[in-house]
Amino acid sequence: MTKKPLHRTYSHESLGSALKIIPTGVSIRKASIYYGIPRSTLQDYVSGRSAQKKGRPNAISEQEEKIIVAALIYSAECGWPCDRADLKKLIGEYCHSCDKMVPWSDYPGIRFIRGFEKRWADHITIGKPELLTVANAKSLNHKSVDDFFGKTVKKYDAFDFHNHPERVYNLDETGFNTDEKAKKCFFRRGERNVPYLSPTGGKTCFTVLFCGNVSGEILPPFIVYKGMHLYSTWCKGGPDGTTYGVTSSGWMEDLIFSTWLKKVKLHFYFFQ
User: Fold this and answer.
1) What does the pLDDT look like over 25-83, one tens digit per residue?
2) CA distances from 161 to 10, 246, 257, 271 (A)
3) Are the C-beta atoms of residues 245 and 260 closer than 8 Å to each other?
4) Which domains does the chain have, with CATH numbers?
5) Alpha-carbon span 81 to 70, nearest angstrom
6) What is the per-residue DSSP string for 80-135?
7) Structure pTM?
């Protein structure tokens, strides 16, 4: 038996289109199948039953909620997106400033917030934002973007990269940490400050650089450890061709990066 979906799976545009073609002679059943809208929903709209609101009326009007949605969108576009806690505070402070009679003392509860999200699902969504520093945000403008692509096109023409995608490489690095994460374990009742023996004795980080070209060739990774000397035991178990190095911080540095470039023979393209 197929379960009925908990959330609406059709848009307002689909509903409007379905309601427009039904008066032309298309049956409610066919419109339901074509637009993916429950037949009972279309029957309610055609008969006028959908105009009758069910349940307790909203604490704030639809127009007020529309303004709040616009504020959320504007805030996100400015680089300061709001989470659920911010939305609770925004609605609570708005209702307090207007002396509105609401069923909560300070801020609305999670049920109201989830209902708000559901009512405006066609306009807003919730997810994890991408971190963008202020410095990067200021540099992301039309002038800098046009300048970047202008220089890129000149390089493509100068080295004939259009016909040699195997010469166009992209690379990026990421850091890893070998620290054990905090976790719950079983102890004798009454014990306090039970230690966990760590082989590193502290934070240990290392960097892995990945590189590939437009043709789809992926180069072996380059692993940079934190240390003064590179031990042979650190260079085992990696993919074939993996390159290893060490720096005092475990991060990528200019000298070791240029050494890697020459070792993998990418310097021909970089230093022309």
Assistant:
1) 888 888 888 888 888 888 888 877 655 555 566 778 889 999 999 888 888 877 778 88
2) 46, 33, 23, 15
3) yes
4) 12-51 (1.10.10), 62-119 (no CATH), 165-180+200-272 (no CATH)
5) 12
6) ----HHHHHHHHHHHHHHTT---SSSSS--HHHHHHHHHHTTTT----PPPP--HH
7) 0.43
